[in-house]
Design goal:
By secondary structure, this protein is mainly α. 65% of the residues lie in helices and 0% in strands. It has eight helices and no strands.
């Protein structure tokens, strides 16, 4: 019979040097303890799980793995998404008087881009990190090396999408906060008459057919932004993150104004 192992200390994570914004880290710290309600334990491991607090160990490995990589992934994803969104939205809506429409389009686009970037870039690093923590927590058990690797691979594959969804959702929420600040600054300049969201100099570099005109954006142009949330991968990730939002706490906060 396998004895429950003593509490093991995971490899140290230098949170101070990860450049994680304190607000983001606090949000994740408060949210991730509830991830135990969502982790998947494959039926093939049911016999093993009866002798070992497996769900708790998997949850701890997920928590540590996500926190280890989240700061860099979110920072890069938000930076790219915000820069791209700001340039396009301010161009397309340069002559739009309704600021609510500008914010709405920016939210839809930046959330989709940041979430997609985060999902793509976090998957393999997260897989590696989860596997490493699982090996660490299970290494003192009397399990053959080959069997241990099979367990690690099975658990990692079953829970990888859950971890990606948590990181993706953190990126979308951070991106919306950042784009709001960027757009607000440009709109303030426009209201004060100190500048415009699109300077005459920058307009000269845009092809005539793509330059903003009075009455734009058209309905077809507006639909481009609305359809960001209809992209196939966005639908899938939204479905996963909604499963998290109630209990894990990374709720969706990037809909239209």
């Amino acid at each position: 019979m396998i004895q429950e192992p003593k509490t093991m200390s995971p490899p140290p994570i230098d949170v101070a040097n990860t450049d994680t914004p304190s607000k983001l880290l606090s949000q994740l710290s408060a949210a991730l303890p509830n991830i135990e309600n969502h982790v998947v334990i494959n039926q093939k491991l049911s016999g093993f799980a009866t002798h070992f607090p497996f769900q708790r160990v998997v949850s701890l490995a997920m928590d540590r793995a996500i926190k280890e990589i989240v700061s860099g992934i979110v920072r890069r994803s938000v930076c790219i998404a915000c820069q791209t969104t700001k340039e396009l939205v301010l161009k397309d809506y340069a002559l739009e008087p309704d600021e609510a429409r500008i914010y709405s389009a920016a939210h839809l686009m930046v959330a989709s881009l940041a979430g997609s970037f985060a999902h793509v870039t976090c998957k393999e690093p997260l897989r590696t990190s989860i596997s490493r923590y699982l090996r660490h927590f299970l290494q003192d058990l009397n399990i053959k090396s080959e069997a241990l690797e099979q367990i690690v691979q099975l658990v990692t594959n079953d829970n990888l999408d859950l971890g990606c969804a948590a990181i993706e959702q953190a990126a979308t929420e951070k991106a919306v906060q950042a784009i709001d600040a960027d757009i607000a600054q440009q709109l303030l300049l426009r209201r004060d008459g100190a500048g415009s969201s699109l300077s005459q100099n920058s307009v000269s570099f845009i092809p005539q057919s793509l330059r903003p005109k009075p009455g734009q954006p058209s309905l077809s142009q507006q639909r481009v932004y609305e359809e960001f949330v209809q992209l196939p991968w966005q639908k899938q990730s939204t479905h996963t993150s909604h499963g998290l939002s109630g209990e894990v706490g990374l709720g969706s906060g990037y809909g239209p104004v």
